[in-house]
Specification:
The structure holds two protein chains of two kinds. In chain A, 18% of the residues lie in helices and 36% in strands. Chain A has a five-stranded antiparallel sheet with strand order 4-3-2-1-5. By secondary structure, chain A is of the alpha+beta class. Chain A has a single domain, classed as Roll (SH3 type barrels), CATH 2.30.30.90. Chain A has helices at residues 23-31, 65-68; strands at residues 13-19, 39-45, 52-56, 59-63, 71-73. Chain A contains two helices and five strands; from the N terminus they run E-H-E-E-E-H-E. The longest helix of chain A has 9 residues, at 23-31. Chain B is α/β, with parallel strands linked by helices. Helix content of chain B is 62%, strand content 9%. In chain B, the strands form three sheets. Chain B has a seven-stranded mixed sheet, sandwiched between helices. In chain B, 43% of the residues are buried. Classes of the chains: A alpha+beta, B alpha/beta.
Chain lengths: 74, 667
């Protein structure tokens, strides 16, 4: 089982390796800039533990943990 | 002769597109809907230096992949309506992600003028953008602007009206994909070369490779068959990835070339604010405090005192009109129709205006600062449990104030299914107009226990609302399985002008509704409450009373099968608070009724159990006219208005019946 964005510790950074999701979902992620080779860091967890705040390319996104599992980290 | 051009405004969501649109048009625009869908379409026509400009606001999107409705609309408009210029709004402080859309716009082969917005925010971050370089690398005109301060607007208009070269695409478009992609593009282009489209064949070829059915269906079947080998699913996924990767790779180099940082990196104000606002311990209490403040501001501080002033003003105007009409000598039925029916009904709803305005000022402020996205972030986990996302929480809570602005506030929920669900469950969140009815009847039947009764009612409303959301999301509005990805924008000070514009737009929408659907409904209700088939009558002999007698048996299983109760419920559709004054009339108490006489009159007609059930029915049944009007406006269809009324009556009846059964067993 490879490491996903969901497994990253808060405060740590990883490089996106692939997006392992059906096409529409994959395209959505890619359109938001989550493409292979992008450096992404996990900023924080929401107070209830989900979703997570991630940052990439100078902006922040809110992603649910279950969706973050689609994003494989190198 | 005047030149005429059509300009399509495109850009990412939440980067000030509305502000720019307003700055360009000065609020003289028409709001409609894109054909067949509920997505709002804004259009404006104006003349600048002798050129007639027709500006169309496309939905805010991050991409043109057409996997979402907004993206489809934006793309189809450009492809089929063939605008003369695309005005692409780009957030300077977030260049790379914004330019991703720009690249896709350029591929469509239409002239693009780029408005580089929020140059002030970029400067604050210490970001310097080499505009001439950006312009020459992309081959488009770039105009720096600050939309909120109306800076650069005239330069932008000058750039828009400047005649454009016929096909900038082939000349300037800079991006070339990987060799295998380009090779296949060329192959397809050669098949397509004999067909004339007003879209660049290169773009068509790319979309065919991406397996984009919307575009594939535009080309003749015969050609589709010829191109079959290029449309395999395996290929399309690979192509899409190669294309997206390449675009971002290109953009990452491009942004590095055109931007420099003049300041060393400092943690942004946004990060500091978020330390508190989305803090594990402080986030939720802070949100509760914000909501409390909004309600206090809306209902105690400003809204209700203003509503009273409005009420006085309306009574005064009604009296003036009445005197005037009497002086004219019009017949008494017409006088009654105008004053008691129309003015009473429409003014009654207009009294909500201060509250609606206040809620919208607060709402727009929170949205513009960027706080709303944080609310969605911290509440998402909770809302996910009922199949919605974090953005649905605010309209839900606003419903406790007034369902009308709450339903109008669902506009911020991008996902259409979630938006419709949020609209349809909103009336279950008991608005403030229902409180006086609860209080009065509860104190008549449950003296000393009013608080528990009222709390139970609110709680029941929330419970039913959540249940309804859950069921709607499992049936009519099944989720499309798309991930919930939301940008958390940088905080910024909202502009007063923008807030005023937004609030005015909402109020205008409400006024138009008050003037149409609410007007019509008021007249109809007045008529059935004051007339019977032989002419004017007392309310006790009216059509409404007849109708009440007709439907009363339906309520017999619920314990209040008398025509007075049924009539009160019909009248309550005008506004829930009217149930009380109406009951005073139909139970023959007159306008001077005291609380005690109310109590004794009702105790004949209701048992404590049936009184409680009656309250539950009032909580859950048909929303008021104002709310139905808001539902019409936001869903753009009478079908959902009728659905909303019917399903709520059905739920109200079912819940009441269950309570009656259980209550009967317990007593």
């Amino acid at each position: 089982m490879s490491k996903t964005l969901c497994d990253l510790q808060v405060g740590s950074t990883g490089i996106i390796n692939a997006i392992n999701a059906p096409l529409p979902i994959k395209q959505r992620f890619m359109d938001m800039g989550l493409v292979k080779g992008t450096s992404v860091s996990v900023e924080k967890l929401a107070p209830l533990g989900n979703p997570i705040q991630i940052s990439l390319k100078g902006y922040s996104l809110c992603v649910r943990k279950e969706d973050a599992k689609y994003i494989l980290i190198a | 002769m005047n030149r005429q051009i059509t300009v399509a405004l495109a850009g990412n969501p939440n980067i000030g597109k509305t502000t720019l649109f307003n700055a360009l048009t000065g609020l003289r625009y028409t709001v409609g809907n894109w054909a067949g869908v509920t997505v709002e379409k804004k259009e404006a026509s104006f003349t600048y230096k002798g050129t007639a400009i027709n500006l169309v606001d496309l939905p805010g999107t991050y991409s043109l992949s057409a996997f979402s409705l907004d993206e489809s609309i934006a793309r189809n408009y450009i492809v089929t309506e063939n605008p003369d210029v695309i005005l692409n709004l780009v957030d300077a402080s977030n260049l790379e992600r914004n330019l991703y859309l720009t690249l896709q716009l350029l591929e469509l082969g239409k002239p693009v003028v780029m408005a580089l917005n929020m140059m002030d925010m970029a400067a604050e971050k210490g970001l310097i953008i080499d505009i001439p370089k950006l312009s020459s690398l992309l081959g488009v005109t770039v105009v720096p602007i600050v939309a909120s301060k109306k800076k650069g607007i005239n330069d932008l208009l000058d750039a828009l009206i400047k005649p454009k070269s016929a096909d900038p695409f082939s000349a300037a478009y800079p991006l070339r994909y990987a060799y295998h992609v380009e090779y296949q593009i060329q192959q397809i282009e050669s098949v397509l070369k004999n067909v004339s489209f007003n879209i660049p064949p290169r773009w068509l070829a790319l979309k065919i490779l991406e397996g984009d059915l919307e575009v594939i269906n535009l080309i003749p079947i015969k050609l589709q068959e010829q191109l079959e080998t290029y449309m395999l699913n395996v290929i399309s996924e690979d192509i899409r990835q190669a294309v997206t990767d390449k675009r971002y790779e290109y953009l990452s180099h491009l942004t590095q070339k055109v931007t420099t940082f003049s300041l060393p990196y400092i943690p942004s104000a946004t990060a500091k604010i978020d330390k508190v606002v989305t803090n594990k311990w402080l986030g939720l209490p802070l949100f509760a405090l914000v909501m409390f403040t909004i309600f206090y501001f809306t209902f105690n501080l400003v809204g209700n005192p203003l509503a009273r002033v409005f009420d006085l003003g309306f009574s005064y105007i009604t009296a003036l009109i009445k005197n005037f009409l009497v002086a004219l000598g019009i017949s008494s039925w017409l006088l009654a129709l105008i004053t008691d029916g129309i003015l009473n009904g429409v003014f009654g709803v207009l009294t909500f205006l201060p509250n609606i305005a206040c809620l919208f000022i607060a709402l727009t402020f929170l949205e513009d600062t960027g706080y709303m996205a944080r609310v969605a972030f911290i509440m998402d986990e909770l809302m996910k449990k009922i199949g919605l996302n974090g953005k649905s929480i605010i309209p839900m809570l606003l419903g406790f104030g007034c369902n009308v602005p709450a339903i109008m506030g669902t506009r911020t929920i991008e996902n259409e299914k979630d938006r419709f669900t949020s609209i349809l469950i909103n009336p279950f969140f008991s608005c403030s107009a229902r409180l006086p009815v609860f209080t009065l009847i509860a104190s008549a039947f449950f003296p000393g226990k009013e608080a528990i009764v009222i709390f139970t009612l609110y709680f029941l409303g929330i419970f039913i609302g959540i249940l309804a959301a859950f069921i709607l999301k499992k049936t009519l509005f099944k989720s499309d399985g798309m991930p919930f990805i939301m940008e958390l924008p940088a905080y910024h000070m909202p502009s007063l002008k923008h807030i005023a514009d937004q609030v005015w737009e909402k109020i205008q929408g409400f006024l138009i509704k008050a003037g149409t659907i609410i007007f019509t409904a008021s007249v109809i209700l007045w008529f059935i409450l004051n007339y019977n088939l032989s002419g004017p009558s007392e309310m006790t002999d009216s059509l409404g009373a007849l109708l009440g007698r007709l439907i009363a048996p339906l309520f017999a299983p619920l314990g209040f099968g008398n025509w007075q109760a049924a009539l009160s419920l019909i009248a309550g559709i005008v506004g829930k608070e009217i149930v009380v004054s109406n009951m005073a009339i139909v139970y023959g108490l007159g306008s001077e009724s005291s609380f005690l006489s109310f109590q004794s009159a009702l105790s004949g007609a209701f048992t404590p159990l049936s009184a409680f059930v009656f309250l539950v029915f009032i909580l859950l049944y048909v929303p008021c006219i104002g709310t139905l009007g808001a539902i019409k406006r936001e869903t753009n269809s009478y079908r959902w208005v009728i659905f909303s009324a019917l399903y709520q009556v059905a739920i109200a009846w079912a819940v009441c019946f269950i309570i009656t059964l259980i209550g009967g067993l317990m007593i």
